[in-house]
Design a protein that fits this description.
Helix content: 55-70%
Radius of gyration: 26 Å
Oligomer: single chain
Strand order of the largest sheet: 2-1-3
Number of helices: 6
Order of helices and strands: HEHHHEHEH
Strand content: under 5%
Length: 213
């Protein structure tokens, strides 16, 4: 599944960084003496280990498989109709009737398939957005209570020099080097402790410490 919403977040993060740099250049950054600690988080890793998210993905895959099985049945039915049509003489009432039925079935199947595709795409987008809000909420809660003013996304996976995608992710990463706080395990623990069906609430959150994976 494509993580399009996460990509959009990367773009937003870049814009936020440039805006902060611009403020410093104009002398409108934080007042002298104000400490601005930075933390990093591996969103991709959290998505892989997020219990609720992965359970929802499994359910969607099962529904997609069921929909695909129904489509195969419709396809097989249309193939049989097509074979039957070949045995009939064009122009006869039976030929016209079967031809009309097959045409109607093809249109209905195509329309239904397009509707289902759109519905699954919308559900997928909403799922990613809901999980992103949950992660963002937990990050903000932790950062506010630990004096962290900026949290950047990064990948904790080592770069595979033989994998073009891995190299591309490394080159395009916002974080070139970090020796700060990796809050990935803290936030992962937080979202997995959240009540099922919704993001973590303030009463459920007690993320502390600076654990690293």
């Amino acid at each position: 599944m494509r993580i399009t919403l996460i990509v959009a977040t990367f773009v937003a993060s870049v814009l936020a960084i440039f805006a902060a740099i611009d403020l410093h250049a104009q002398g409108r950054g934080p007042a002298p003496g104000v400490h601005c600690p930075v933390a990093v988080i591996d969103i991709a890793y959290i998505l892989k280990k997020h219990d609720g998210f992965n359970q929802a993905v499994v359910r969607m895959k099962q529904e997609l498989q069921a929909a695909d099985n129904n489509m195969k049945k419709d396809r097989d039915h249309m193939l049989k109709m097509q074979e039957t049509l070949k045995t009939l003489k064009p122009g006869t009432p039976d030929y016209k009737k079967l031809d009309e039925e097959m045409t109607e079935l093809v249109v209905n199947v195509q329309t239904h398939m397009q509707i289902q595709k759109k519905e699954f795409q919308e559900r997928e987008a909403k799922l990613y957005y809901q999980v992103w809000l949950e992660i963002n909420d937990a990050v903000k809660y932790w950062a506010d209570r630990n004096g962290v003013n900026l949290v950047l996304q990064f990948s904790g996976d080592p770069t595979d020099p033989n994998n073009p995608d891995s190299i591309r992710r490394t080159v395009q990463s916002l974080v070139v080097y970090q020796r700060g706080v990796d809050i990935t395990p803290i936030i992962l623990d937080e979202v997995n402790r959240a009540p099922a069906g919704g993001p973590a609430g303030p009463t459920a959150r007690k993320p502390t410490g600076t654990n690293t994976r």
